[in-house]
Design a protein that fits this description.
mainly beta, six-stranded parallel beta sheet, 235 residues
């Protein structure tokens, strides 16, 4: 039938488990009084690592998030113990090559009251209920960017909980909310809810039915433990 068959050889490498750290910044929770905004730019051969004093906890709930990474590059958050964040514990906005490793996160999210007279979802107390109610409170909120890795983290005990399907489509907190990043890895994490503090999804997506929605393209999700989700483990 004719045609041309071409073959060739080549080589490739996967990402390294360990990266070269040029500088380590040790956070003192006693000195963190507001959202910590990180805009650092390391290099492929010189990552910037943030950690904290052993045995300490970064604990405050007043602000939208505890840590915001804004267009950061080659940054690692390692061995952080975070309790709080009024919506999120960590925001990752438009970043490239960021790793969140060996962190424990608990106690994040907006506290609401269940309105069984409306749609059974949780809404902000004292305000008229509307729409989906309280949703998209990801402990780690990833918006766009590329090369984001979340690994070996323990995320549990959101302040709020998700409703059951008995009332309507669940809405509530998530371990991770993914808004169209590229080339992301989520591996070896424990996302643990409970009957009192259920996830909507453990990994929630923005942009369902959009070709670039959710985790977008080139994502690896494996080796995770996810439990007590009212809707999906992964959207």
């Amino acid at each position: 039938t004719g045609g041309i068959l071409r073959s060739g050889t080549g080589s490739f490498t996967t990402w390294a488990d360990k990266v070269k750290v040029a500088r380590t910044i040790v956070l003192d929770p006693a000195k963190i009084k507001d959202t910590l905004v990180i805009r650092d730019a390391g290099t492929p051969d010189g990552w910037i690592r943030y950690t904290q004093k052993p045995g300490t906890v970064i604990d405050f709930k007043k602000f939208k998030s505890v840590i915001q990474l804004e267009r950061a590059k080659y940054v690692i958050l390692d061995k952080l113990n975070i309790r709080g964040g009024n919506e999120h514990a960590i925001e990752v906005n438009g970043c490239e090559n960021v790793r969140i490793s060996n962190c424990e996160i608990t106690g994040w999210g907006v506290v609401g009251e269940q309105r069984c007279d409306y749609n059974g979802r949780f809404h902000i107390k004292g305000q008229a209920p509307s729409g989906y109610g309280i949703n998209f409170n990801g402990a780690i909120n990833i918006m766009h960017g590329k090369g984001i890795v979340v690994e070996r983290c323990y995320i549990h005990g959101a302040r709020n909980t998700a409703n059951s399907w008995y009332y309507s489509h669940p809405a509530g907190p998530q371990a991770i909310t993914a808004g169209s990043p590229e080339a992301s890895v989520i591996r070896y994490n424990d996302f643990v809810g409970s009957d009192e503090h259920r996830f909507n999804d453990a990994v929630e997506s923005l942009g369902n039915f959009n070709k670039n929605g959710g985790l977008n393209r080139d994502a690896d999700v494996y080796g995770n433990f996810m439990i007590y989700c009212s809707d999906d483990n992964i959207e």
